[in-house]
What does this fold into?
Amino acid sequence: MSGLLLIISGPSGVGKTTITHQVERELQAEFSVSITTRAKAMGDKDGLDYHFVSQGEFNKARDNNELLEWAEVYPGLSYGTPRKPVEEALTQGKLVILEIDVDGAMQVKEKIPQAFSIFVLPPNESVLLDRLTARGRDDHSAIQRRFAKAKREIIKAWESGVYDEFIVNRDLSHTVKEAVSLVSKRRDNATLFT
Ligand code: 5GP
It folds into this structure.
């Protein structure tokens, strides 16, 4: 039996990490831990949230074809999905969650068209800016950079045609329920036709 690959994307500050981990718990899924060259931030757990690597280590993994996808999400900051753990979990029939950006989602969909992809939207721009500011993780320039990137990311997501579903995160528990229900439906359909 082969599993299901779930892609969850959304702009920074939309709440997608919380949503991802709640969906992971509810559906006993496996979260794919990416490698990244960005610095470890407060609250980040090495090996759980990311594997923090040097640029040299990242390049080596990329050049050895060890990544299912990768992207330079911010200038000079690269992120990538280690291929092996994903393939192994899928072979074991598991639901595997990738929390990646639109560039990464495009690469994955090209390689694995059966992957199911959800893009999480904020209710509106000002809510997004408020959330980016309120989480207190970044300084002013980082917040502005993330906000500008977030707006570009939403447009790119629409234009890419890569997403199966767009959901608006107005209320966290409702959004999680919606995501769980969409994924469950997709899983049931996949079982019916295999
Ligand atoms: P953050 O630095 O806020 O944790 O993540 C920044 C962005 O990088 C988020 O949009 C997140 O979805 C994306 N990201 C995290 N891991 C990966 C990955 O392995 N590949 C790609 N393409 N994007 C990733």
Remarks:
- The first helix runs from residue 16 to 26.
- The mean pLDDT is 94.
- The beta strands are 4-9, 30-31, 34-36, 50-52, 67-74, 77-82, 95-99, 116-121, 165-168.
- The longest strand covers residues 67-74.
